[in-house]
Request: fold
Amino acid sequence: MLSVPQSQSTRSLIFTDALMGKAVPRAPFWFMRQAGRYLPEYRRLRQEAGSFLKLCFTPELAAEVTLQPVRRFNMDAAILFSDILVIPYALGQQLDFVEGEGPQLGPLNAATFAYDEKKLSPVFETIRRVRQQLSPETALIGFAGAPWTLACYMVQGKGDGAFESVKSIAMQDADKFDAFLDLITGATILYLSAQIDAGADTVQIFDSWAGVLPEPYFSRWIILPTQKIVQALRQLHPETPIIGFPREAGALYPKYAAETGVNGLGIGWETPLERAAHDVPKNVCLQGNLDPLLLLKGGVAMIDGAKRILETARGRPFIFNLGHGVIKETPPVHVAELSDFLRNFRW
Ligand code: 1CP
Reply:
């Protein structure tokens, strides 16, 4: 007999149910950077692949790395193994990951950039492979960087955490910067839509450097491009929930949630969850926000931190996560302990 994969509309997943505000028996959970260097089996495959980009663009290996943490810890969602910087690459910018130094991008020739989706076909193949192997109860998260965060890397060529030169260039010729963000926004819509077509159950938009922009630029370069992405995806895929993570948005989190229309809102560890739970309307599913250092530390401090978060989120749609990525020195047994606790916790 043929086994027909169930479509999103007929599958019920605790993860997407929570995002859609439906009642769920417990808080679903996953951990940002759940695949990666803290896992010995990742380090082995990473070495075998040779380069990080080769790992991202070899569907067999990328699918395996995506599945590794879920096999060990049975999270409610797997996240596609890739990187936000594959969009600059598909637009035509040179991209290298330098060992020990992180990403490095080539010169910015925005006038010659054009989105070439064929360059990203291995990513869609990875999604198809993961979806085939993943249990039907486990969600698959696709993702992209938000236009502002991508622009930070594209303009500066590498990460530095403050991006003052990018802010300065953007503010000096804001209209030109709008046009640059539009180019990235258009590519991101196509990219995320293709990820959903390939089998992603939800997508997360990472705006890791949202916190460096003050108003009115936050509205212009964080909220507006994200709103365009959300609206376009809603047209194309009305049943697919969308998560936004404007890291360090602080007091601007509620405005971001209201105006972008995301279903889920990632809250960084620096923002008290009490504050977000008070300020963000209950139709938005919050996600977060354990300090990754507590996962590194483990034991009572980690479990107490998790309990505190779950108590605060009681009575509203919520997905448990870290407030940023797993730190590479984290012992996998801590991740196992926290996962067991979360799977057995009932509100
Ligand atoms: O050598 C290695 O193994 C490379 C380390 C690494 C990994 C494991 C990089 C380089 N990217 C990734 C994977 C990755 N990146 C995922 C995969 C899935 C998972 O979460 O398990 C995701 C979702 C990302 C997203 C990403 N890449 C973000 C947004 C989230 C965040 O951390 O704020 C950002 C800013 C990047 C850029 C990037 N890629 C890699 C590094 C070291 C960086 C940060 C560079 C910097 O600003 O210093």
Q: What stands out?
A: The chain is about 50% helix and 15% strand. The longest strand covers residues 139-145. The mean pLDDT is 96.
